[in-house]
Specification:
Protein name: Oxidase ustYa
Helix content: 40-55%
Pfam family, one: UstYa
Shape: elongated
GO molecular function, one term: oxidoreductase activity
Strand content: 5-15%
Distance between the termini: 105 Å
Largest sheet: 2 strands, antiparallel
Family: Belongs to the ustYa family.
Number of strands: 4
Keywords: Membrane, Oxidoreductase, Transmembrane, Transmembrane helix
Radius of gyration: 32 Å
Number of helices: 6
Strand order of the largest sheet: 1-4
């Protein structure tokens, strides 16, 4: 017997296969487009700013890590008086007081945390030397009061807020070594120092002019 070879499929039989492939391809493209659109609408656009007038971010565009910090009374560092105390308090802020430049045409900005640190330092100096006749101390009391309320630390302290009573028995505030969840201030410090390495001489001069004669300029290296 003669073997009969299979005849090739007719164009009419091939057509459904091609149509199916084209349909699947179009369906895939539509699904990809839909997914990309969904990603686009749920992903917030990175805000852009002109840095003209008030058109700038409210906060430094830096995401800080969360860290645990145990609060304690440091008997060796950050004393009220003495050369070492002055050096340590001044070193809490980065060079140039922690100011930063932002924008394509860089503009100088202060950062609230460093402002708060210098306010505390201002009050320390007033306690040592007496009132200096400037409005800075009153400003600092208001600024620190509002800063503390703004951050609203919810850490629980057993027994209320108190400390050891030096004139008798009883403990008011067993808060020593109480762990608080904080934002990593060291990350902010290091970022600020790295950013200042990019400053031009003109930027340095402008920053110094802006703080000259104010309490924000006090302290060597600030």
């Amino acid at each position: 017997m003669k073997s009969e070879s299979a005849s090739p499929p007719s164009p009419a039989r091939r057509a459904p296969s091609r149509t199916l492939l084209v349909g699947l391809g179009l369906s895939l493209l539509v699904n990809i487009a839909a997914i990309l659109y969904q990603i686009h609408i749920i992903t917030p656009d990175k805000p852009s700013y002109t840095y003209l007038g008030d058109d700038h971010p409210r906060e430094l565009p830096l995401k800080l890590r969360s860290v645990n910090m145990a609060f304690h009374n440091d008997e060796e560092h950050y004393a009220m008086a003495g050369d070492r105390a002055w050096a340590e308090w001044n070193a809490l802020r980065p060079p140039n007081g922690g100011d930063v430049y932002l924008g394509e045409n860089p503009l100088p900005f202060g950062v609230s945390m460093w402002h708060q640190i210098q306010c505390l330092n201002q009050i320390r100096q007033i306690l040592l030397d007496g009132e200096d006749g400037t409005p800075y101390t009153e400003h600092c009391f208001h600024y620190l009061r509002q800063s503390l309320i703004c951050r609203g630390d919810l850490t629980l302290e057993e027994g209320g807020s108190s400390m050891v009573n030096p004139n008798g028995e009883g403990t008011v505030a067993p808060t020593v070594n109480k762990s608080h969840t904080c934002r990593d201030w060291r990350q902010l410090y290091d970022w600020t120092v790295d950013q200042q390495k990019q400053w031009t001489p003109e930027m340095v001069n402008l920053q110094e002019e802006l703080v000259e004669g104010t309490f924000l300029a006090m302290g060597e290296g600030l």
